[in-house]
Amino acid sequence: MELFIYEHCPFCCRALMIVGLKQLDVDIGIIMEGDVETPTRMVGRKVVPILRRPDGSHMPESMDIVHYLDQSAAPALVQRGGDAAIDAWVERAWPLMLRLCVPRFTRTDFRELATPAAREAFVARETRAFGDLQALLDDSDKLLDELRPLLDELEPLLATRGEAIDESDFRLFPLLRSLTIVKGIGFGANSRRYLDAISARCRVALFDDKAA
Ligand SMILES: N[C@@H](CCC(=O)N[C@@H](CS)C(=O)NCC(=O)O)C(=O)O
């Protein structure tokens, strides 16, 4: 099987998590930003992640891929459902995360941005979605001030999280992992412990070394 991703993409992170958690023999392929043709040929539109299955068919949609790969090798590890409070927290934090992370993603050495044309395509796509990316970067302190109380609210939600992996982990970890690209983010102790634990269990690297 082969999983096609962008390295920066939080939805792709979900699929990488299950591959690492179950130590599956799945090749990782990078689709370049700006490459419309490859994903469109596979699933009819420009989107990642995409999984090529053993029969040659292609599957989009990150949570579908998570469950498909989880079922592909016993025992299944991902509990259906999750923690409604964590899911609600993710919903609230997601737009803020994007405004902090997207301008930084556009300036980072991800493999999908390895050519000038790919980086240009990414900047153009994200500028259409978010407006002036430099203005967002200039707003970082204000955005971080908005995020800090949310991160504080997350701490007690993580205090009681046990060993079991459920769907909420596939929503929360990609968001927190994205935020590791923001210098001085200042996670609480439980968030930091959670990030490091899931990163190690799922063999998905964080972005601390790329933080700006
Ligand atoms: N519902 C999809 C969403 C995937 C998604 O939005 N991926 C983004 C990348 S982060 C994408 O493909 N955007 C379109 C593009 O690259 O033009 C899933 O969960 O897999």
TrEMBL record:
Record domain Glutaredoxin 2 C-terminal: where: 85-211
Protein name: Glutaredoxin
Domain spans labelled GST N-terminal: 3-74
InterPro entries on file: GLR_AS, Glutaredoxin2_C, Glutathione-S-Trfase_C_sf, Glutathione_S-Trfase_N, Grx2, Thioredoxin-like_sf
Source superkingdom: Bacteria
Coiled coil feature spans: none
GO cellular component terms listed in the entry, alphabetical order: cytosol
Transmembrane portions of the chain: none
